Amino acid sequence: KIEEKISKVDIISCATLSKTPLVIGRYLRNGQHIDLVGAYKIDMREADDETIARSSVFLDSYQLGLKESGDIVIPIQNGTLKESDIKADLFELCSKLKLGRKNYNEITVFKSVGHALEDLAAATYYYKKYIDESGI
């Protein structure tokens, strides 16, 4: 059972098309990190409300996360989460405008709905690595 595994790992990664939450907040423990990189539509969810309520939430993009992600939109609609509760997006983290995890006990969630900038950054990294290693 997935519930038995959740509390035993440091990092939980979900990349599903689930409409039913798979990460259940009551099984989380302090210090865990949860990556929610699937469930990119408003009617999809990988984490339940308790997971979101117990966690510091980070987004790849405010614009996309606040409009397209059921993991974020549904908890906002039902009052579990406020927009102001979201700690930062990738731009703010990467430019050090905001900080990430504040302590080792904090549970963190990163919600990505897919951002072209992430794909471009990965492609640029591997292209440069290829050029450097091949001596071109």
From TrEMBL:
One GO cellular component term noted in the UniProt record for this chain: cytoplasm
Q: Where are the transmembrane segments?
A: none
Family annotation (InterPro entries): NAD(P)-bd_dom_sf (IPR036291), ODC_Mu_crystall (IPR003462), ODC_N (IPR023401)
Protein's name in the database: Ornithine cyclodeaminase
